[in-house]
Amino acid sequence: MTSTPQRALSFFAGGADFATLSEIVEVARAGLASDVRDFLDGGAGREVTLGRNRDAFERWAYRPRVMTGLGVPDVATSFLGIGLGLPVLTAPFGADGLFHPEGHCAVARANAAEGAVSIVPEGGSHAMEAVAAAAPVAARIAQLHPMGDPANFAAMLGRIEDAGYDAVCVTVDCPTAGWREGNRRNRFDPDPAVISGNYPAGGPVALEEVFGQLFTRTEPVWTWAQLGERMAATRLPWMAKGVLTAEAASAAVDAGASAVLVSNHGGRQLDGTPAALDQLPEIAAAVGGRAQIALDSGIRSGSDVVTALALGADAVVIGRLAAYGLAAAGEAGVRRVHQLVREEMQTILTLLGVGSVRDLGPEFLQKVQP
Ligand SMILES: Cc1cc2nc3c(=O)[nH]c(=O)nc-3n(C[C@H](O)[C@H](O)[C@H](O)COP(=O)(O)O)c2cc1C
């Protein structure tokens, strides 16, 4: 009889690295200045939606299949024509330089190493081109806000194409900045450089011209028809980020979107909206296969990813989880987030009796009282 090394029998074979996502969150939060921590953790208003995003996951229970004969679960998939080693994209969180000087450049390198893809923010600390250069394999989707001068929007689409991105993510739930009590209480006023990677001081486009609308609300909000016309200028497919209703999902698809991101912006925009997860079934029904579906807002574990996919998402987007990884240990921290999400997903899928993430469906879930 050959002896099995003791290590292979351990619950944890990861050496001195972070063993859980909660450790990453703890280390990240402990290292941030309190106002930056509040900015990252917090939501809008009384944070009702922020709480709902988490509570929604507790109301689903798994219906496991046992004795399936299946091998190692396959977690690879594709989204917007982009292959993914795991069904996870990192969110376009702006002001990334507050969490780590390398910001989304580090996130993209971590994604490249772990098979995830970046949605790179317009309001980030580094230019789209710089993030693409840092990790072209992962920097595949660029995010824009539909506001300001349409000529600048068109110019940004050109920059995004030239930098080699494969798709665009348009944030439709942010015509003005949400009512963030925590930031107001803290008089939070970071250096504009953290959001001006794409619009550096002294450059051709002033930051105020692009993002001023978030605070002044002087211009009318764009319509779906205007967005559809303005997106027709690019050959790239696009996704509408911030869709919460069947009506908005249908409007996005009618305007030309190839995907919708079911999201309430992590509870940071309109407080009082439902959990994103709770809106997923109605949106999946409305879209009816005409577009792909991603979900963000509240994903904190591999188990959450499995639940979202079972309810109809093709992929998930992680915001704070990726930002905590970045704050905790830069590129290595984001990599560890992905590794732990993947390992946990594979555990859950094996216990659930699922061979591939593409086989997940509502038959693996049932509603329960929390
Ligand atoms: C610090 C921070 C900054 C963000 N900035 C943006 C942004 O500039 N544009 C945008 O569309 N979403 C932004 N978001 C929202 C995320 O893209 C995403 O929708 C949200 O974080 C998902 O929820 P989760 O944090 O619970 O995963 C930001 C989120 C955070 C935490």
Overview of the structural elements:
Belongs to the FMN-dependent alpha-hydroxy acid dehydrogenase family. It comes from Pseudonocardia yunnanensis. It holds the Pfam family FMN_dh. The protein has helices at residues 21-31, 34-41, 48-58, 103-114, 128-134, 150-162, 181-185, 207-211, 213-216, 224-231, 246-254, 276-287, 302-310, 320-352; strands spanning 60-62, 77-79, 82-84, 88-90, 117-120, 139-144, 167-171, 238-243, 259-262, 292-295, 315-318, 365-367. The chain is α/β, with parallel strands linked by helices and 370 residues long. It is globular and about 60 Å long. Bound molecules: flavin mononucleotide.
Give a nutshell description of this structure.
This protein is an alpha/beta fold and 370 residues long.
Number of domains: 1
Strand order of the largest sheet: 4-5-6-7-8-9-10-11
Present as ligands are: flavin mononucleotide
Taking the alpha carbons of the first and last residues, their distance comes to 48 Å
Per CATH, the architecture is Alpha-Beta Barrel
Low-confidence stretches: none
Could you give the topology of this structure?
Blueprint: H1 21-31, H2 34-41, H3 48-58, E1 60-62, E2 77-79, E3 82-84, E4 88-90, H4 103-114, E5 117-120, H5 128-134, E6 139-144, H6 150-162, E7 167-171, H7 181-185, H8 207-211, H9 213-216, H10 224-231, E8 238-243, H11 246-254, E9 259-262, H12 276-287, E10 292-295, H13 302-310, E11 315-318, H14 320-352, E12 365-367
Parallel strand pairs: 4-5, 4-11, 5-6, 6-7, 7-8, 8-9, 9-10, 10-11
Antiparallel strand pairs: 1-12, 2-3
Bound molecules: flavin mononucleotide.
Flavin mononucleotide binds next to helix 14.
